[in-house]
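Sample pair:
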Amino acid sequence: MRIFDAFYTTKPVGEGTGLDLSMVHGTMRSHGGVVTAESSPGKGACFALYFPTVQEKAQREGQAAPAQRLHFTGKRVLYVDDEEALVFLSSRVLTRLGHHISGYTDPKAALAAFRKNPQNFDIVVTDLSMPHLSGLELARGVLAVRPDIPVLMTTGYMRVEDE
């Protein structure tokens, strides 16, 4: 299927790079998984991701090494993404790793919370492409209050206005 080729896209110029599906396909393949796709004109597409079981991998590669903890825990993280599912998932993962998360889907509300208590955070993790206030604008607002705080910016989609 061409849809898994790098830079293949059906979108107009400037509305996507065509890298998403090729990255998913490559990641799944490198971990022993598979991606399938079904599409119907006018009805959309359905993608299924098949992951290998842990037992299969352990049998194939021998005893798995125990997971290593990061050398730091207890960080107070301001996590901002307009996708509620990502805020929920990231908050759960980071909490399990021993961090304290303040998650927001509204970047303006996140900036207001930061301005109210800037010393309550050790790091800011933000999505780049968000409506109403971009991650770059959020970072500028945070750094104007506390120039010493680390800001980690992520994105799954780069808009022209974010470049």
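The beta strands are 34-40, 44-50, 76-80, 100-104, 123-127, 151-154.
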